[in-house]
Amino acid sequence: xxxxxxxxxxxxxxxxxxxxxxxxxxxxxxxxxxxxxxxxxxxxxxxxxxxxxxxxxxxxxxxxxxxxxxxxxxxxxxxxxxxxxxxxxxxxxxxxxxxxxxxxxxxxxxxxxxxxxxxxx
Amino acid sequence: xxxxxxxxxxxxxxxxxxxxxxxxxxxxxxxxxxxxxxxxxxxxxxxxxxxxxxxxxxxxxxxxxxxxxxxxxxxxxxxxxxxxxxxxxxxxxxxxxxxxxxxxxxxxxxxxxxxxxxxxxxxxxxxxxxxxxxxx
Lengths: 121, 136
Prior knowledge:
The structure holds two protein chains of two kinds.
Chain A: E1 9-11, E2 19-20, H1 21-27, E3 31-36, E4 42-47, E5 53-54, E6 59-63, E7 74-79, E8 83-90, E9 94-101, E10 112-117
Chain B: E1 4-6, E2 20-22, E3 29-31, H1 32-35, E4 39-44, E5 49-54, E6 56-63, E7 66-71, E8 81-87, E9 96-99, E10 109-115, E11 126-132
Antiparallel strand pairs in B: 2-3, 4-5, 4-11, 6-7, 7-10, 8-11, 9-10
């Protein structure tokens, strides 16, 4: 049977490693994704992402399933070697990402990875 | 009334590996397990040594700016999300760390490359990684 536990703080059985529920809320990633950005783009795996959008070479929008509470969340990116990956527009429901190679040209990377921390709506 | 729950392990009732947490807006929910970082590490790539980490067995120095992190409890696959960062005490050196193009992320390890802003391989003083995704 599903259950709801209402609690302010979690600790281990020895009362150590105390963690407030607010820390758990704030500390957990609200979205992450691993996208293959080459050819027909495809999410390899993800959390809280619906279908991504391909805007052309090296530009993608990741759309959230459950929106963020505001657009001032923290984002982090990674890509295959010799690429620079960064945010190119954030909203509560999506983040647009641009990937560039070492020559500063847009590049379709096989591995485009995102992580989002912040407040859910 | 404030409350405190003392527990060593949290397990979902319906699905053991899935616990729902109410979000900051007090309405939307998120998944606890999916949101947790499964691996993090802070590596000194210059003198080479892990400063601190979670779920990392060891780091291997494959050469200048070339490191492999071995994961203690494996991920379910290589399809996880990796975030990296790098820097040095010297302001002039802007650090870049990327996935190694010849080594796809694996369930038990990930290989990365550190470069300077001009693209040359560099051992950065601070090399940081974080992984979110599915544990095995």
